[in-house]
Amino acid sequence: METLPHESEIVVVDNGSTDGSSEHLQRLKEEYPIVVVEIKPVVGRTFAIKEGIEASTGDLIALIDADLQYHPKDLLKLHTKLTEEELDFVTGWRDYSKYPFGNRAISKIYNWIFRRFFHARIHDANCGLKLFKREVANDLIYRRGYSRYFVGIASDMGYNVGEAKVDLYERKAGKSNYSKTRIFGSFFDLLSVKLSLTILRQPMHFFGGLSFVLIVGGALYNLLNKTLYPTIMIVSGFVSFLFGLVAEMIMDLQPRWRLERRAAGKNVERKGRTKIGD
What we know:
The protein is α/β, with parallel strands linked by helices. It has helices spanning about 20-30, 45-55, 75-85, 100-120, 135-140, 150-155, 180-200, 205-225, 230-265, and strands spanning about 10-15, 35-40, 60-65, 90-95, 130-135, 160-165, 275.
């Protein structure tokens, strides 16, 4: 950390570990100026990251896994990329050549779909080594499983994103939580993220389009078949339109809420501490 060009802090998030990490972190805390965030019970990677970000104070935020597959020295590569190209978010790009063929094939397909969905020239969306500005962190969506798509979310929100090649080492601690069956589920998660971003950005476009289809479809169907179904379709169309209108009103409040949150964050003095989540 001493080689980094700025002052830095280390925030360690213990997300319900059962291997003695909590006790070890408390001992390390007595020797080094680190912030320890303990969360019980397990809340998942995305919410653990959110807690760690809220406990931090810097303008730049780096994410690195605790399984020692990444070396902290590669943060310099990400920082160089971010500053020289004036980016907002930089993610690592791992060398997949040592992976089994099946894993490499799935990863290539997944990242190809990722690039098409988010229009981001990223070769490795799932790399656990990331660096981004705090304003990006304030705008990210923190839902279960969304941490793998942070770079895509940032790109979709208009931030400048990039990548830098990093080294990947053998896992020295813990085990992977991503099974082959979960890999296929990640494709559906990817679709969920994209739909969520589309609806959140312009909800009336989604609900308005749906209401138009229902109302027009119900009216045409009513000309051919005098039953209750056309009425249900038309009423559902108006309800969908109202949903879109309410959603637009809520989204109009969001920028104001974010500005208030940022202003409040500047007035809060954070100190190194142990934070325990119930």
